[in-house]
Amino acid sequence: MSVARTSRLLVDVHTHVYLPRYADLLRSRTNVPRILTNSSGEERLVILKDEPSGGRPVGPQYWDRGQKLSFMDKHGIDISLVSSANPWLDFLSPSSAESAAADLNQDLEEYCSSSPAVSSEASLRRLYGFGLLPLVPGVSSSAVLESVKQISSLPHLKGLILGTRGVGKGLDDPELNPVWDAVAQAGLVVFLHPHYGVDARAWGDVDNGHVLPLALGFPFETTVAATRMILSGVFDRHPNLRLLLAHSGGALPQLSSRLASCIAHDPVVASRLKHDARYYLGKIYYDAVSYGPEEMRFTSDVISRADSYVSSETARVAADCKVGAKRMMFGTDHPFFPPLSSTEMWKSVVENLNSIDTVQGWGQQEKDSVRGGNALELFGL
After folding, report:
1. What percent of the chain is modeled with pLDDT above 70?
2. CATH label of the domain that carries residue 144
3. How many independent structural domains does the chain possess?
4. 3-state DSSP call for residue 353?
5. β-strand partners of 192
6. Which part of the chain is the Amidohydrolase-related domain (predicted)?
7. CA 322 → CA 4, 153, 276, 310, distances in Å?
8. Residue 328 to residues 163, 205, 249, 290, 298: CA-CA distances in angstroms?
9. What's the pLDDT tens digit per position in 298-332?
């Protein structure tokens, strides 16, 4: 397959699956997270305490590979980087998490490796995946490192997905330093995805359904987790670590200059970092799940200027927004947010693709890169 052909592939880096083994585990539970059957005989997925409407309807689109491929075909998606969805293994004991991670990683490898080829002339398959680590409180470092080793040995797993809690203390926990080192050395991509949002009391007493937790809580959770990684020096200690942030990095791009200013006024925190905080935003990757061209352009601008901040001194160097496009990648968040009728296309696909096509300042090369070229390069496809 030629470079010109692969550069035009549409690649989805943010798409989830609840593998059958995982779905069965959730069905066996009586506490959240769980899959329950309501009085109407409908299965519903409940992943957060006090979740509105008794959770959300869940069906074969969450675990059936045929339906994943049908969704891809309907929307012209050539390749998907599939990840197990939240809450991953957070609710399990260390021993249960270790065995579940090993089994689910093997399941995902089979799910991907036996998927169809992109075309008769290609060695690429339609599906690749992000593995799981047994990151739960009390797990041994050796068990986590063994999972990293397993994932790196499975040819169709190109990275790993994790939430924001780490082994219970967050992703700035010094206990994770050996994990970051092992992941970086293995060349795996870390996909950071939220699950817990923020304190539900922030949403008040008015019933707004899932709107506030999903639209605001999830991105804020990502923002805090990624910022804690920056402040703790993770990217200084592990410069080869490749981090992909869900939902275009949450509010981190929008708040990066405010963050840098606050750091500059706190000498203790500032002394931990080799560079201005904005520099590190250019070392991170972002999905393009932001639904609007203005939001994508803003994120691209922030990434583009990041290399100007090579020290703690504020730089005033104009940057081309095309530079930032190199670190952004198309995503759909399938199977969440389905259309309201069977005849509709998925808004997450249509709106994000339309946004990529209408970002002011991006040429065809940048649009093709965000649609697929960047992902092919990042994941070594």
Report:
1. 94
2. 3.20.20.140
3. 1
4. helix
5. 162, 245
6. 11-381
7. 19, 35, 22, 19
8. 20, 37, 10, 11, 12
9. 999 999 999 888 765 545 555 567 789 999 999 99
